[in-house]
Write the structure tokens for this entry.
Amino acid sequence: MGDQSCLKIVNEWDIVAARQLGRNIAKELGFGTVDQARITTAISELARNIYLYAGQGQICIEKLFENGKSGLKLIAIDSGPGIKDIRQVMQDGFSTSGGLGAGLPGVKRLMDEFDIKTSIGEGTEIQAVKWLR
């Protein structure tokens, strides 16, 4: 466990702020520019989903130090409607917002670890980890 920084997501400017915070923390941990871009893209997708589907929530970015490895954990939490069919939203091309449908499957591909917990009417929590190589 390391330090954790959280930002509330209530408008589009908060998405920009979360991306910037994530990039700064990734850079500080020693991630290269390609992995910094992967991390900021993942943050953008997670924060946008909070904004679009739950209305509000938060993105937490945590520095990880485990077994001599360093990494960064993203935690996206909302108390929105929850996800009815996780398998469906994890399919490439599926979108309820008319977008490209690269959201959550894209986040899973960009990061090294990915976990999603959701309850209908209670909200969703997604955790994704990127390890420093």
Observations:
- The first helix runs from residue 12 to 29.
